[in-house]
Amino acid sequence: MPRGQKSKLRAREKRHQARRETQNHGGAQATAAQREESPSCPSSPSQGTPPSSPAAGTRQEPQGAPATSSRAAGVSGPGSDVRAKGPVQARKSSSRASASGESFQRDPLIKKVGRLTEFLLERYTVEEPIIKADLLKLVNKRYKGKFPEILRRAAECVQLIFGLELKEVKPGGDSYTLGSKLHVSDDGRRSSGWRFRKNGLLMLLLGVIFLHGDRASAEEIWEFLNGLGVYVGRCHIIFGEPRKLITEDLVQEKYLVYRQVRDSNPLRYEFLWGRRARAETSKMKVLEFVARVAGTVPSAFPVHYEDALRDEEDRARSQARAAARALTRIKASAPSKVMSSSSSHP
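RE: above sequence
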């Protein structure tokens, strides 16, 4: 990165940190509040070979899939950010972002973390003990020295995305247990806990979309989720049937846009941020979430970090303009209220 660009990035980062220190960190993470029950399906995922993802295997989506043309979708968020930059700059920005997203998904440690995460969830499903020796078998000799880091990231992953906490049965022992950190009501309903779990998956999906240049193909989304043990057609212990949740529920709740790629032949589909996602979270929060899952820091994604800093600045300016307009309206209405009050009391 050129020296001048690095200086600008550091300056933006300092301004961002200054704003963060003076603002309330109250949650702006998206809360999916409309549908609180998972699709009805068996309580444990089916065993055997994971089914191949239709998105990754065949390009044709089933009839009835929610698909709208790019023009009809009317998205004014991440997608329009790319278009507004002009054709040449947009292509460069999109290609750099897509390359960064692909390198993230193909990180060998990410794959190992995904395997451990899937294994942990399987053990949680059947209520069997989690033995360290079994975890080590999933990490070949080449990465055996990185096992503590991989396990730490897998534990972070199951906590952030699935709402489960990995603990040692005994300090310094060789066995672990997974337990839910979420409250479940007496009638067994998942209510707020289900929303929390959906939030974790939603933030991850928003992150994958962001890392792929503010739009991600269905193939890219399912490829990443498959690495975490989430497959189309397989009922997930936490999320139920993932296709319904991702292409229907989260779309209806306006957190995701799922649409047909214009002029694609054969038909292809892509995901973008929805209106509520843009309103309730930010690129910086999503990037921070992804960085935690990846066991790193947001600045490790320099292209996206710079984009997120610009987004923070734009949001700050928009809030300042909105506050100024509100103050102007208050001042403008004050004299009329005084006159009205005085005229009613002779």
